[in-house]
Give the backbone structure.
Amino acid sequence: MRNVERYPVEGPNALWQMYRTVSRFKAVRNFIAIQAARYCPELTVKNWIYRNILGMKVGKQTAFALMVMVDVFFPERIEVGDNTIIGYNTTILTHEYLIKEYRLGTVKIGSNVMIGANSTILPGVTIGDNAVIAAGSVVHKDVPANTFVGGNPIREIRRTDAGEHKDEDKRVMLRS
């Protein structure tokens, strides 16, 4: 189960009330910074934006590929370890606005994690160290360390001993 905080709302759906939860200024500033980072080819500049403008915790040598979309309203709730790769066009969400409530959850991504292209990470999820997420996956629950997962919704494909992942396995997962 995801670790999310639930906040009930009265009246119209929660998305219509989003500016009660986050300021317009923060939303616009974050949107501009995220768009700059999405198209930026320089990883050090991209990570600087994530750390210093958006308040994310980003480890050393972590690489966000082109077009990664981080949460616009609460990016400071994203934590990524060292030497992790987040694939092309992946979305990382820390909020959900629903009809009768909104939910917030911190996303924790460990070190040496490989997230394949076009994946979606939902709020409140923890991905353990050395995990591999197949391309196109929807991560709706925690992923233990040293585990290969994939699909929509994700399912476990294989579990390995710590550090046993091979580069070839990672390339195969990204193509699946």
The chain has a mean pLDDT of 93. The longest helix spans residues 24-39.
